[in-house]
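for the writeup, i need someone to sanity check this before i put it in the appendix. the sequnce is what the collaborator sent (i think, or maybe the updated version? ugh). structure was predicted straight from it, no edits. if anything looks off just tell me and ill rerun, i have time this weekend
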Amino acid sequence: MPRSLSLLRVSVLLLIVQARLSADPIPIYELAESALPDVRDGTLADWLDLVPGPSLTTSDFRDAVWKAGEPIESGDEVRVYLGWNAALARIYVAVERVDDVFMGGYTGSQTLDDMSLHDSIQLMVDGDHSGGAYVMRSGTPPDREADPEAYTAYVEEVRLAEDLQAQKYQAIAVALDQRHLRLNGSVDLRKPWATQPPYGDGLGTQDPSAPQRSLVELYVTAWDSLNYHGAEYSQPSRLRPGGVIGLQVAVIDYDQDSRDWDGFYTVNGGRPSDYEADSWLEAVLLPRDGGSTGSGIAAGGWGWIKELLRRGP
């Protein structure tokens, strides 16, 4: 298919889907299982052949904390490439950054270093766009000595709720332990398998020339139920053409060695909750073929959209 025709069909699909969503949807482009990007090659070359272009660019991001609503500072740039694959239930991501000052120094998850205290990325995925809590508000646990069974049950309930039906990931360009992708916070200690092949993987690279360029590539599995006991107890999301998932991307920026962000930039400047996925944005899973359903329904109409939503992978 000519690239111009493919782009036209993608644009038409976005316009139609936008009509039924609350805001401009973020496009995620379908990837064939036979042509997936290599997330460990340190280059965008394969991405540029597989998707029409970045799904998000610098102008899509606004500060969500200290400088609420302000754009990314002048001279810095961000481009986010997004893809999806139904058979593997995966979301693929590449984030290219140009930063006037790159603050690395992340020593690794085994040292309990916090990735978010360095220039890094946060990715939030809600595979069925159901929203709701993805972390349990812990409250006061039962007394461990007075009622050990109640305490054990409480701890289990909290751990099961962590990133259960939506997930927050952290990724970084430079990691001394070579783990460039992890689940948010201490959840990673209980679910390290979720960010390791075949469920997740990623690599980062950084060019020391000024302004400094970095690239983070990764894939994660979208989970409707991510159980810390293992993949055999978990349920991946059912991704399908025309489907909508919850998504948010945060770009964390430091210009000096301190614990205060110089910028916490999210898509549209919304501050994502640490507990609920309701505020995450809508992202549409665009079909690779521009929308063919094999049903004889003409592409571009409401019947086409309904058919795309109805059919499974």
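The helical segments are 3-18, 45-50, 148-161, 187-190, 302-310. Residues 1-6, 16-21, 291-306 have pLDDT under 50 and may be disordered.
thx in advance!!
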